[in-house]
Amino acid sequence: QVQLVESGGGLVQPGGSLTLSCVGSGFIFTTYVMSWYRQAPGKERELIASISSVVGSTNYGDSVKGLFTVSRSNANNTVYLQMNSLKPDDTAMYYCSARDSWGAPVNYWGRGTLVTVST
Length: 119
Fold this sequence. Notes:
The protein is mostly beta strands.
């Protein structure tokens, strides 16, 4: 069955860095656009980064542009999110997703990993 499993979340101090990983299985990972979303308490889910299936084109939300970097390893069915200069406002549940083309509805969701930025 399809699975997306995120890892790498945790507690980090303001200004710190964290890398999230998401491993996909049960579908042809290499053909899907992979994205990261986040949802902070009391807020709507926000699309923050996407990466295309083969060429690796990327797109970022304005709130993370220049701070976060999305990448993927098709050999390992894994998508990453490198997060730098973290702020308390980055505290959220981070979700991995897969869609079969740019702009299409999300086909699959992970269960999320919690990132807390705090002293």
